[in-house]
Structures are given as C-alpha cells and as structure tokens.
C-alpha cells in the first residue's frame, strides 16, 4: 500500500474484538470468503489477520475485559505519540497509550469528545489493509455522533480533516480526498442507548443477499437494506457475538 495513496490521516485498518474469537472468525470466513492467518501466541493476545484473495483486509482478537464486541477503525498516523497529545489537547481521552507491536508498528486507542472510540496506526512492517472497495473488503468508515460540529472540530485538529456537506451528513476530507463520513444520530432519532460510534462498511456484491446470509449465520439485521440515491444500497448488521458493521453494494 503506497503512502501516496493512503497518507497519514486516512483510515487504513479495521479489526474485530470479540468474546468468541473462533466463532467470530468462522462467521466472517463464511460471510465474506475470508481466510485467517495463524493467531499470534497468547502472550501477544492471540491476534490474527483476515485475508481476502490472499490480501490483508482486517484483524481479530479477544475483546478487552468488560468490553463489548466491536469493529475498530484505525486512522494512519506518522507519529502515534504526537497524535495522543493532540487528542488530549483537543478534549479527547487516551484509552490505550501508544504501544509498539513488535516490528509491525505502533497503535493507540482514543475516545473522542462525543464518546466514540477509534484507533491510530503508525506503520512499521504492517502498513494496513491491502485491499479496498472490493467485495469482502473495507469500503467506508463513518462516525455516528450527536454532535457533528464538535466531532468536526476534534478530528480537524487531530488529522486535518475538513467537512463537506451539510444538514444530517457530512463527508470529511483530507486535502481534496474524501476519507470518512459523519452521521447525525439526532436526525436519525437513534435511541439514547446507542452511543457515538465508528461504523465499518464492507463492500459486497448484493446487500440484500448478504443481509440474508448474516441472518442464516446467526447474526442480526439492525437496519434492513435501503438505497443511497446515486450511490448504492446498504444495510447495518451484527455478527452473532454482537459486533455491528455495515454492508454496501455500489450501484
């Protein structure tokens, strides 16, 4: 993955934290046709990589104690320690301090001022996903929040993102490239029990068929397939352990 294509400030990696690693991996292998690398030793958390057609598309490992199964979005950074300081200065919270992962790189986990968790990745040997925007691969990352203005200020200070759009949905840009979206949860009248969150979208050939397959595999469909005019069709689903993600099929 060339730095020119995915510069710092671009989401480049996602991973699954789950309460049942074996069942979770089996679910996604069947749903997306992924394969799974051998897990790392227990002392390294049992982390493993998902691949599609031999190319890296994401990771998986056990959820932290007390955590809920989830997909985490990681944004590439040139300096994780510097980003951690920017997060503090902008009113966010450092959940996991920058930590070197052998020779792979450096990661950190943060919480933005609106309550959403996200990660950053500083490249080492591992430079993120190797396949994007193809069936079974990451295609979009979207923040759901009840304070779009506060989120825009925060991520602008951290990554240099600017907002394009208005009303209930904005697209965040890095220079002239759109890198992520931001959805107003108040406008969607989402229940207060749903916190601010980053939602990971995976590309599929047919969102309706994939949503049905999710149900057949023991998952749930939280938002049935619907059209995005001029773009495609999407659905929001959850795996059997409860990790929420989205499916998107372009028109």
Automatic annotation (TrEMBL):
Superkingdom is Bacteria
Residue ranges of every copy of the VOC domain listed in the record: 10-123, 137-250
This one is known as Glyoxalase
Q: Which Gene3D superfamilies match?
A: 2,3-Dihydroxybiphenyl 1,2-Dioxygenase, domain 1 (3.10.180.10)
Q: Which residues cross the membrane?
A: none
Fetch the InterPro entries from UniProt. Answer: Anthracycline_SecMetBiosynth (IPR052164), Glyas_Bleomycin-R_OHBP_Dase (IPR029068), Glyas_Fos-R_dOase_dom (IPR004360), VOC_core (IPR037523)
Q: Which organism is it from?
A: Candidatus Aeolococcus gillhamiae
One matching Pfam family, short form? Glyoxalase
